[in-house]
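Ticket #299: bound-state structure for LMUUFLXL.
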Amino acid sequence: MGEEARVSPLKNFVAGGVAGACLLLAGHPLDTIKVRLQTQPKAPCAQYVLYRGTYDCFRKTVTKEGVLGLYKGMGAPLAGVAPMMAISFFGFGLGKQLQQPDPNKPLTHTQIFLSGCLGGVFTTVIVAPGERIKCLLQVQASGGSSRYAGPVDCAIRLYKTQGIRSVYKGTVLTLIRDVPSNGLYFLTYEVLKNFLTPEGQSVSQLSTPKILLAGGIAGILNWTIALPPDVLKSNFQTAPDGKYRGVVDVLRTLLREEGPKSLYKGFNAVFLRAFPANAACFLGFEMALKGLNAFVPSL
Ligand SMILES: CC(=O)O[C@H](CC(=O)[O-])C[N+](C)(C)C
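RESOLUTION: The complex was predicted; output attached.
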């Protein structure tokens, strides 16, 4: 079997880190807008709404805070997204390797989905605290106050005041968001890659526009199932302590106060970001993998 066909979780790990950096650079500005829209307080009437939509939030953020305002809270994901994607791609590679004792036998769609889910379980260990810190920082600027000086200050203060439980607040919702969405993410990408590969060619020869297309669509489908738990997670992680009794309570409160549409809050920002960010992510992954296959084939 050629080096390119062999699944190497380690190569996936390194290439996944590059993918994460690409994902972040292309996607963070719209992620900030998404979190601000998702967590803005409910206004008594339309006149007092802080942000009327994606463009309004973009415009107000840039006017008040400059372009750098869109990159607020990037410190935590910068340290978190590259390792997160590295672990995600590693878990996916490991899942594939574990389920494929015979490398010449292709995996079923269910096996690919489960491999992706494994990546989601692994990443939660760093994603849950990373998201808690990122969301708190993203929201504090839009609220006008600056309680935390940065990601490290935020992590230390959460830990000092309420211990590790506070740092990991929102773990269950992170698992609910990331396990199935990770499965769908990788399944979509693999299915599209095979579909877009012309007869008789290897998937590793797929052209850049086709990689971008497959990655972008994988990102969009991933968010169609990830967004409702993401809204619950953002609200839960940024709420004052004691506001919600648990996952079901956030869901009930949101449905009661704002209706089912609230589960798709930030929809425009999420879907505007999903395609370019994930297209860049998978392109970064494939290019890094090619480099590794050429320079360190035995990894
Ligand atoms: C829901 C989510 O975080 O999706 C990630 C891509 C993105 O758009 O941020 C990918 N992954 C499912 C691997 C976490």
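RESOLUTION NOTES: The chain has a mean pLDDT of 90.
TICKET STATUS: resolved
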